[in-house]
Amino acid sequence: MVSSWRYAWQHGVGPVLPGAGLTALKDALEKDSPELWQPNIKSLDGINTTIPFLRRCRVRQACAIEYCGWKGEGLKSQGELWDYCADICERAEELTGPFADDAFTWWFCTTPRDEMRRLLLPEVNRELARRVETGKPASRVRLKRRTVKSVRQLVAC
Questions:
Q1: Tens-binned pLDDT, residue by residue, of the chain (157 aa)
Q2: Which of 64, 98, 114, 144 is most buried per CB count within 10 Å?
């Protein structure tokens, strides 16, 4: 039986991430880049994502999904990444059903870093190889301006 995070990755999150973002994520996982951030979900409660100052902040670290938007799509501000993450999660849910993206983000945030890297890297490689074999790129994600009130609503993205 496939674990819930792996199912969410293989059937939802992975397929909708851009190829350039997946390649950047692969490099970050291989090099254990400090820019790839595993947020403590509990510490995110109460962060208001609608505050203009926070939305304009320059990115210094990002979770796996945001990292793909930052390094793969060239997004620069925290607000752009929050919107991007919400859109990726929404698209993933369309493919897998409600809460599947939650399974991935929860696993990513709560798994010890070495274990996360060891388990996620082969999944990223598998998704990149699938695209080469099928010639099928990821679905293009259109960024929408969000009215999400807190980071917690973004499932820790």
A1: 889 999 999 999 999 999 999 999 999 999 999 999 998 765 555 455 556 667 788 889 999 999 999 999 999 998 899 899 999 999 999 999 887 778 999 999 999 999 999 999 999 999 999 988 887 766 554 545 444 443 444 433 4
A2: 64
The structural domain count of the chain equals: 1
Assigned domain for 157 exists: no
Q: List, in order, residues 6 or more apart from 33 with CB less than 8 Å away.
A: 27
- Residue 105, domain extent: 4-152
**pTM to 2 decimal places:** 0.82
